[in-house]
What does this fold into?
Amino acid sequence: MKSVIGKNLTISLYGESHGKSIGVVIDGLPAGICIDTTFMQSQLDKRKPKGKISTQRKEEDDFIITSGVFNEHTTGTPIHIMIENKAHRSSDYHPELPRPSHADYVAHVKYRGYEDYRGGGHFSGRITAPIVAAGSIALDILKRKGILIGTHIKKCQHIEDREFLDFEDDIILCNNKYFSVLDENKEQEMIKHIENVGANHDSVGGILESCILNMPIGIGEPYFHSLESKLSSYLFSIGAVKGIEFGLGFDFVNHLGSEVNDELEIIDGNIQTKTNHNGGINGGISNGMPILIKSVIKPTPSIFKSQNTVNLETMENTTLTLTGRHDPAIFHRARVVIDSMIALCILDLCIEKYGEDFCL
Amino acid sequence: MKSVIGKNLTISLYGESHGKSIGVVIDGLPAGICIDTTFMQSQLDKRKPKGKISTQRKEEDDFIITSGVFNEHTTGTPIHIMIENKAHRSSDYHPELPRPSHADYVAHVKYRGYEDYRGGGHFSGRITAPIVAAGSIALDILKRKGILIGTHIKKCQHIEDREFLDFEDDIILCNNKYFSVLDENKEQEMIKHIENVGANHDSVGGILESCILNMPIGIGEPYFHSLESKLSSYLFSIGAVKGIEFGLGFDFVNHLGSEVNDELEIIDGNIQTKTNHNGGINGGISNGMPILIKSVIKPTPSIFKSQNTVNLETMENTTLTLTGRHDPAIFHRARVVIDSMIALCILDLCIEKYGEDFCL
Amino acid sequence: MKSVIGKNLTISLYGESHGKSIGVVIDGLPAGICIDTTFMQSQLDKRKPKGKISTQRKEEDDFIITSGVFNEHTTGTPIHIMIENKAHRSSDYHPELPRPSHADYVAHVKYRGYEDYRGGGHFSGRITAPIVAAGSIALDILKRKGILIGTHIKKCQHIEDREFLDFEDDIILCNNKYFSVLDENKEQEMIKHIENVGANHDSVGGILESCILNMPIGIGEPYFHSLESKLSSYLFSIGAVKGIEFGLGFDFVNHLGSEVNDELEIIDGNIQTKTNHNGGINGGISNGMPILIKSVIKPTPSIFKSQNTVNLETMENTTLTLTGRHDPAIFHRARVVIDSMIALCILDLCIEKYGEDFCL
Amino acid sequence: MKSVIGKNLTISLYGESHGKSIGVVIDGLPAGICIDTTFMQSQLDKRKPKGKISTQRKEEDDFIITSGVFNEHTTGTPIHIMIENKAHRSSDYHPELPRPSHADYVAHVKYRGYEDYRGGGHFSGRITAPIVAAGSIALDILKRKGILIGTHIKKCQHIEDREFLDFEDDIILCNNKYFSVLDENKEQEMIKHIENVGANHDSVGGILESCILNMPIGIGEPYFHSLESKLSSYLFSIGAVKGIEFGLGFDFVNHLGSEVNDELEIIDGNIQTKTNHNGGINGGISNGMPILIKSVIKPTPSIFKSQNTVNLETMENTTLTLTGRHDPAIFHRARVVIDSMIALCILDLCIEKYGEDFCL
It folds into this structure.
């Protein structure tokens, strides 16, 4: 169960950066769901590097669905989506020199030297492409059920995007953008900042804020399978994520209970909370308000400055200066992976509660 | 699998605040482990209310081990630990008036009016007592393997504790305290603050910082079962936790890659990182450095001020003023639940990797 | 996950023959299900020894539901059912002399001498009582959905009961009997045979045939989670079961394909098979016909004849003659455990497919 | 979790008979295991049709390992093995006419008409090829640990093979044969019988007997995860299996306890049983004796005689006469699937108990 997640909707992931192919097996979807391969490709495109703010590696994410889809609809049996690796250079990797803050060193110890070190191997960000492909199916199903998911770049170092205002409009706005910032001025400011950081051979991180709109009330369980537990276990699957918070999150510490309790009220006959400091979740269970999640993406560890490291063969201290193609920032590309993981999580929980026909 | 967590070390939780008993079934421990019931009781005592900063409800946490332990050692078959409920008053609950920011309303919808509403029912913080009992066994096993776990109160509103300095000493210091603050002056300041907040009928939250020391390298998996995924899914099981971060966490956004990459170096023949901004985890896998986790505990939702809520029977807006026994702060009591959940998580992963004999 | 089974309806089992209590935690049932404790007790009574064909140990199976049930209905949170142990004699057990064909020797090796050997410890048939309590809830829910489950004693050595004729009537007949044989003459013959075997200090086994009637079409998955896989994994949980077959089972080997293929036909507008040699399952999936399962229960290993064994302390060959209270046959008592395990399995699969509201 | 099995060693299966590819993802194997692709191919060859006793469809099982293996050794991350489909004819399938005793009808209902019906789709026996590929790795690892697995054809209708005599020699003998019968005369007799049955447009089944030799003592758990539960859930994954028994199995009913109890004795300082009626398992746990399992494989449902069926479009009774390429018997080809599933099961349990380094 190391590369498998989900109980009623399960995905199983495989692949390495420089192997023959990467892919995912999806099971748990009922038969008869129309698969929108155009949407799948458009989601994959959001993960692709583009412009000066990304690596210049040209990744062809041409996916092939080899099973589980027949006449454009799910058959009810496992779906296998595969992406062949083509663009990799069989280049100059130095497995004996682990890159700081990458998984190189832990992989070397854990896998005792047998790891596929080429291009980061299984740890390559590229392996998230099949997650995006799988996620696009989940997003599409949820959308048809009225559940919308969107993520914007809340912060890039000191530059901060505005808050979600009209949730539905803003989610649509997010989902139509490659660089998902709500405020256009901030968008340009962030892009410029990333370019500058990149030109300076450095990298920068960001905070992504996600919203799940129109979540049914009652999803999530007390304690071990709280909605926060479930969502965080999906989101921390993404390598660069180092923190997750719901609603006010860490800011709760700055307030008294009387300031941040979400009082209840009836509006138009519906019970809702006057504020949403808890981000749509009480006691681990959705309360019907928008679910608000922030994820921090650390600065890309690949920078072009000289860094200290060790030589695993000679066991001596040394330095390393990376060359090649790297991203000065990845949070804008991680955005669609976040959306995908959220969708896969939420759909799993909905199928658990409502049964597989929920998807239809 | 709603009240069950863990793959190779599994716990199954049950109980309500005012039911006959609460308890936990533990399975996956090999035979022959000496059970230290004195330590178990001392851990339960850390969760008990004490002093003016806690509820005045006197909770007797007298546990009974009804199976799985014979002649003070584990038998290798499931352990059942039970705590009988005695102290509850069959008091004046108003299930029709959901308390703001509690689970009352979501429970009412999810369980369609059949929930045991007395004292919060299954959502009561009291249900974490069996977790602490189970966790004490895991903590004890890990300690014998040299893996130490400790948590201090990093922040209570504006008051901030010092950082971990000597990890081993500080963990021992934490574990010997009821109110776990490293700096004694800050400890007094925080307690005084909580008392003031409580006197003002309000409540306050905090940030807990945990350390796992001497973690073996190589625990955790890429992607879905990253160490962050695993730990966060355990920690978000605790109702009041609304954010989790590892290492620098959300502070990563304020720094460039060159500032926060953890460079590698050889010291005394061992490879380690010069800094520990990643909190002991790279690519989802432990790197041998101390694992550093921060969890935010929101202010206790039970406050004695008048609050807006709705009447579920009449479907009208109304107000509610709580009476009875409540905590102005719970983060100091949540601390031992955090330690317990971390220990149960880490032991599960170690058994998975090394087999059940790891525990011996 | 060693003492836990079920994905959407989960049971967690604990206890030893001579410990303080035995019990089960059930999770996954939605709120609002009326719990029929009278039926629960009547099912537990079917498992109790009775008459000369059983042990003379008087077992009080007075269960207590300590959580998860409020005002006689499920609350939606975990249910804990406990049975206190009272009747055990703190008698003359010889842990150094493993009883042939019991689990004594394997337990001794697996648990390295720490096992609770008193009365068979965790391996005691008594531990199946909580399974029966849990199963009674599942049987009751399924019955309300029209799905009936019943088991008769197909064979006791050479004595064979008649086949199921009218399935519904025969299932009701089974469920109303303590010694569940359809043909009354055969019933008397079997009881007499067991008494004779017991008087001769020996024991005897049997074949139980179970039927699941009105099974919805489409339950079960191809390959790993076939209905046969699921049902067999539940049924082989019962210690004495050494074989399981569906439909013709092993008798398939004696026939050509043309003799045993189940041809399809339309009767009254419904598609069904003309014969039911496949026992209601094709390709791992229910086909709507009655599901027919045979389980063989081996002769009780506890016999009063002198048997060869080894002394684990002196490591010498020796003999052992059991004394005390033992059953010459247990298959008639195992019957209700079989029904319970089948019901827990089928309900889990139905909840998976249809969602938790299936139970309502 | 519908196409996924295993806890610590997990396989995830996908594919349809006439899709682009079939395959399996394997996770849980540690890094550094040498993959013997020659053995993998030789195992796949045992599943291929050969001679007059099989279908004339020529299946090319040219597997590709696209990830998880680097420099001929496992990398520790997921392994993906894929087999492209080439040989299928896009022939004359009649989805409206379900073949008796096949999964056609249940698939049609379960998947509401969206199933890939070509060549049986996901239900095709061809999908077991990736299982054999995965199983070859498990078999190889177990063999290096001294654990041998082999299966012979115990019975083909009235023709019965001899018993296992010298277990080690006989397992080697089995594993070197395509048509795995221990007694050469019986082998010829069975082949001739199958040819006759085939010539008569009919089909025939068989009983396979498997042995696991040198099983460590203590594998398996009481109750829900008994060794019988685990093995049977793996074996019933194979579509044609309709019964499983351990040791004497159903024959237990014909004997008294005194005749079939396995008495213990010390031979050369080792404790073992004098007989092995329980097939190496007591109380769900391996006792060190050879584990003996019988599986019945029903006659192939594809026969060339006219059969009654229904027309799903017109909802009328009709008849069907199959044409094309079919096997008069498949049990000899199922043999290697049985061995593979047993190996995957046993290795999973060994990794659970001993940790992942067991594989090295």
In short: Chain D has eight helices and 18 strands. Helices of chain D lie at 37-47, 104-110, 128-144, 167-175, 184-199, 227-235, 257-260, 331-354. The longest strand of chain D covers residues 148-156.
